[in-house]
Amino acid sequence: MRVFISSTYRDLLPERQALTWVVQELRATFVGMEIFSAAQESPTDAAIREISECDVVVFVIAHRYGSLARASKKSILEREYETACSQKKHIFIYVKDEGASVHVADIEFENRRKLLKLTAFSEPDGVTTVPTMSYVASPVFEKLLRAWHHGGA
Fold first, then answer.
1. pTM, 2 dp
2. CA distance 71 to 83
3. Of residues 56, 63, 80, the one with CA closest to residue 148
4. What's the rounded Cα separation, in Å, for the pair 65 and 109?
5. 8 Å CB contact between 140 and 92
6. Please, what is the end-to-end C-alpha distance for the chain in angstroms?
7. How does pLDDT run across 20-71, given as a tens digit for each residue?
8. How far apart are CA 23 and CA 140, in angstroms?
9. CA 133 to CA 5: how far, in whole Å?
10. How far apart are CA 93 and CA 117, in angstroms?
11. DSSP-H helix ranges across 90-153
């Protein structure tokens, strides 16, 4: 099973590291921006290519909309979501609870409206809101394990 982790980077680095561990503990293959090389293709093109080869895409959303994809008004994260949906991937979405504490530097105020659109993403099991992102690893582990055992991923 290949698992793509999608999130903004700087504000969610500890969560990305925890999810990398979860994926590796399941003996699955972690795929994310950390493994992209500085090749000829853009980060968006690399993400779209990698998502097409993955079974599951996990989205983690907090308070940043993210970098804009080249020649687009959408973030790379939003383009990743559109790709995962169009390719009918298994999608798991985790959104940080609005009431959770956060560092002001990790909030992207200028794209607030676009960020709210991201938090409205949907998946068959529903979007999981977590009180703090430190809680994200356990539910991801459970969903990946369930998908693996049901042969769906």
1. 0.78
2. 16
3. 56
4. 9
5. yes
6. 6
7. 888 888 888 999 888 776 667 788 888 999 999 999 998 888 877 788 877 7
8. 9
9. 14
10. 13
11. 112-118, 137-149
